[in-house]
């Protein structure tokens, strides 16, 4: 009887020990007795960080290089990058316009900063003799167009490489320590063949023609007035000879566009000429007739104002 009790007691101890060992070996296992191996499913998507600085502001931009026709001028700070040049216009009698976006590390004063020490881009251009806040031929032909709102414009008129235009637009610092802006430049069309050359030699390029004290017409690119502009016009008026870049067709179309932009109707319009009738504040009428040819020289014939005009 004593031996039987001892045997049962030993069996109970053995069973308890076995249960404890089993519990230790499964501690931390998930419900169901399965181990938790490392996940082998599809990984979570990782967000791609936006590149810092100019790489993020102008993706794909490359080191800035001088623009054709403007290699003598510094148009961006050192360390700048630029987008590929976009080209517009450049046809017969048109300015060739190129546009890019610039980005550089720094601040806006490196472009538009103080002029006294000539260290900024603007100060450097002024120091080289360029005119500031002039017009820009945004449409490819009208040099008299005003500089765009918020832009800063320069031109080389008065210098040997005349009729080159520069427009700095949307100069801003979108993120701290970096600056971007649009850079637009315009190069002139081919010089016109003005005949006879002696009538136009030494004459300055003009961008507008004064019709009356309150009416001014823009004129085509590279226009010059003849030194003999004293010819007798219709009805005792004045006949003016001018010479412009392009062709007879482009010159005529330009002047038609100008007249219509002032709200004037085109009268007696042909492939080489048209007429407009104008009324002065005093009630006097007069007409202006534009006549072109196959070359670069054209006529502006203006009558003397009168209180009645059969063409009006």
Feature tags:
eight-stranded antiparallel sheet, 312 residues, 2 domains
In words, what does this structure look like?
It contains five helices and 15 strands. The chain is elongated. Strand 9 (206-210) and strand 10 (216-225) form a beta hairpin. The protein has two domains: 54-187, no CATH class; 197-302, no CATH class. The chain has helices at residues 2-25, 54-57, 109-112, 121-127, 248-261; strands at 62-63, 81-82, 86-89, 96-105, 131-132, 152-155, 165-175, 178-187, 206-210, 216-225, 231-232, 238-243, 273-279, 285-291, 297-302. Residues 1-41 have low confidence and may be disordered. Strands 1, 2, 3, 4, 5, 6, 7 and 8 form an eight-stranded antiparallel β-sheet that branches. Strands 9, 10, 11, 12, 13, 14 and 15 form a seven-stranded antiparallel β-sheet that branches. The protein is of the alpha+beta class.
């Amino acid at each position: 009887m004593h031996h039987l009790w001892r045997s049962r007691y030993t069996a109970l101890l053995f069973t308890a020990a076995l249960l404890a060992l089993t519990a230790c070996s499964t501690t931390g296992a998930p419900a169901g007795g399965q181990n938790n191996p490392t996940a082998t499913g599809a990984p979570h998507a990782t967000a791609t960080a936006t590149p810092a600085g100019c790489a993020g502001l102008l993706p794909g931009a490359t080191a800035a290089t001088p623009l054709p026709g403007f290699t003598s001028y510094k148009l961006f700070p050192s360390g700048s990058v630029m987008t590929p040049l976009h080209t517009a216009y450049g046809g017969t009698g048109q300015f060739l316009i190129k546009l890019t976006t610039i980005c550089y590390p720094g601040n806006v004063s490196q472009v538009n900063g103080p002029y006294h020490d000539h260290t900024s881009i603007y100060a450097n251009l002024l120091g080289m003799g360029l005119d500031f806040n002039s017009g820009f031929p945004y449409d490819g032909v009208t040099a008299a167009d005003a500089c765009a709102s918020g832009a800063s414009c320069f031109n080389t008129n008065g210098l040997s490489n005349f009729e080159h235009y520069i427009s700095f637009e949307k100069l801003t610092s979108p993120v701290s320590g970096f600056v971007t802006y649009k850079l637009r430049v315009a190069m002139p069309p081919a010089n016109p063949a003005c005949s006879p050359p002696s009538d136009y030699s030494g004459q300055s390029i003009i961008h507008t023609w004064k019709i009356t004290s309150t009416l001014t017409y823009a004129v085509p690119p590279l226009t010059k007035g003849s030194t003999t502009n004293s010819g007798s016009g219709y009805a005792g008026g004045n006949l003016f000879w001018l010479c412009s870049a392009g062709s007879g067709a482009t010159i005529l179309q330009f002047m038609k566009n100008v007249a219509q932009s002032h709200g004037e109707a085109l009268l007696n319009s042909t492939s080489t000429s048209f007429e407009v009738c104008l009324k002065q504040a005093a009630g006097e009428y007069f007409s202006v007739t534009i006549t072109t040819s196959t070359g670069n020289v054209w006529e502006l014939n203006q009558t003397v104002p009168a209180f009645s005009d059969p063409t009006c």
